[in-house]
Amino acid sequence: MSYLLLDGVTKRFGAFTAVDGVSLTIEEGEFVCFLGPSGCGKTTLLRTISGLEFPSQGRIVQAGRDVTRMPPRERDFGIVFQSYALFPNLTVRRNIAYGLENRGMSRSAIEARVDELLELVGLQEHAHKYPAQLSGGQQQRVALARALAPSPGLLLLDEPLSALDAKVRLYLRREIRDLQRRLGVTTIMVTHDQEEALSVADRILVMKDGRIEQIGTPIEIYQNPATPFVADFVGTMNFLKGRVEAPGICRLDGLTLRCRTASFHQGDPVVLAIRPEDVVLRDLERAPENRFQARVLHADFLGPYVRVEVGEGELGGVRLLVDCPINLVRERELREGTALTFALPAERIRLYRDGAG
Predict the structure, then answer these.
(1) Distance of alpha carbon 185 from its chain centroid, rounded?
(2) Residue 324's closest CA among 258, 276, 288, 265?
C-alpha cells in the first residue's frame, strides 16, 4: 500500500486555481521532488499536504489515514522551510529539542535524542551556539535536525537550499540525500532547480500551472520528456519547427531530416527537439544521415565542455546549440568562425505536435 495518496487535490484562492486536480501516490521511503517554475503550484501542494492549507477538492491519505481536514499538529510530518525559521533566542540544542518538549518525553530522553541528531547532522561542537553565530548551511542543518527530532513518517522540504551559495548547496543536497537513505524517511522536496531534483530524487513530479506535466524517474524525465515544456525546463534543448513530409522524414527551413514519425501523419506541423549533448561530432562515417557542416557563431566555455552555437553553411537559417568536449575543442582548434561537421542521430530527435505543451 502506498504511504501517501493524493486523490484529485485542488486548491483555489478565490477565482485562481493554484493546484488543479493532482493525483499521486508516494511509496514509503521514497524521495520525491516537486519541480517547476515559480507560481506553478508546487509549494501550495506541499502546504496542502502539511495541513497549512486545506484542499478545495480531493483527499489526502497518509499511512492509511485520511488527513484531508486534519490540522498540522495531528499529522505525522516534519518540515524544513527555505528561511530556516529557527528561534533566534534559543541555542542549537534548544532549537532541536523544541518539538520534543511538548510531547511528554523525559528530559533524559530529550537530551539523548538531541545528542543523536547533533551527531547525525555533524553539529556537536556548535550545540550551545545561537543561530546568528552559524553559517547558512549550518542553520539549515539545525532546521533539518529539528524536523527529524520527533521521528516523523514524512519529511517535507520547501526549497531548503535556495538561499545558500552554490558550493554549500551542492554539499548539503548530498548530505540530505545520504541522510534520507540512512533513515528511510518518506521525503518530498519542493525545488525550482532542475539539477537539484535530478541529483536527489527517486521520482520527479514536474508541474506547470497547477497541474502535473510529467511524473517519472530522473532518467525518464531527462531522456524522455513528455512535453516541450518538460524538455525545455529540465536541461537544455534545441527546438526546431517543421512538418512531416513523408514517413520518417521531416522538412524545416529548407532542411530534410530523417526522424521517427510513427505517431504523426504526412503534413502534420511538428516541433523537433534534440539536446546539445546528443549531437554527434566523432566517427561521422557511421552517421551517413542528417550530416551537416555549419559555422561556429558563438562559443561559451563551461569547464569540461564548450557549448557552441552553429549556423549558416548547410543549416541555412537554422541555428543549433552543440556541446563539444574540451578535448575535441583543443584537437580541432574550434573557435568562432570555425567550420564544424556534425550529425543529428534520428533516434535522438524527439517530435512533438506544434503547439503541444
Answers:
(1) 19
(2) 276
